[in-house]
Amino acid sequence: MQPDMAIITRSNAAQHGSAGMYSSGCRCDVCKAGKAASQRAYMQMKRQAAGQTPQACTLCGLPLARYTTAVRPFHRPCKDSAPKWMKAGLSEPTPKPAPEPKPAPREMHSAVRVAFEDGDYPAFIDAIRSRVTSTESGCWEWQGQMKKGYPELTMGKQRKQVHRLVLEKREGAPLGVLSAHHMCANSKCVNPDHLQPITHRENTAEMLARTSLEARIDELEMALSALAPSHPALHRVSHRALTVAA
Hints:
- The chain folds into three domains: 61 residues, no CATH class; 89 residues, no CATH class; 43 residues, no CATH class.
- The strands form three sheets. A three-stranded antiparallel β-sheet has the order 3-4-5. A two-stranded antiparallel sheet has the order 1-2. Strands 6-7 form a two-stranded antiparallel ribbon.
- Helix 6 packs antiparallel against helix 7.
- Helices cover 44% and strands 11% of the residues.
- By secondary structure, the protein is α+β, with helices and mostly antiparallel strands.
């Protein structure tokens, strides 16, 4: 007796992992995979019949399981990791040139600062000499920054008095509370031979004595001008007069 073909067909359709079993209501993982495989095979057959070539992932180049109308198709994992320019359909941007290396901080320092930090006294003095103007009296008048009549130098975030730095390097130790006294009475001078370390009291006393002496000279000149206006001592070149005029 021949078996009923309809019964055989229904029996085959009811097997797990087939599209027919999925359509019958089974939602197990095996039937879901069978349904998806059947659908992929069907869509592949339709694309081949229409003459469509298999699409490939833009990022990895592997064929896609499904056909899409996207200009730049991706696998889902590839789309998450693809760069923005590729997703937008743009060409790969040209890499920016590497920035030029910045000079080392030490290379940006002045010769005075480098020699001072190295403790090289001859090089420090040479660097100082390159930034001064020598006078007939032997003073080295600073040509850089000045504050209240005294030469200054910026070292890092600090501003230091140049004549104190010169004296500290000559003595080989910091001055601390001592003052850097100008024996030449020229506050612009940074000549180490014209400087000496003294206490603040001694420095103040010397300044007061100098002020008193200058006041006494003025008093005598006024008295002399009243007695002998044409005296030749009154008509000589005066260092103090030139200083006041400047």
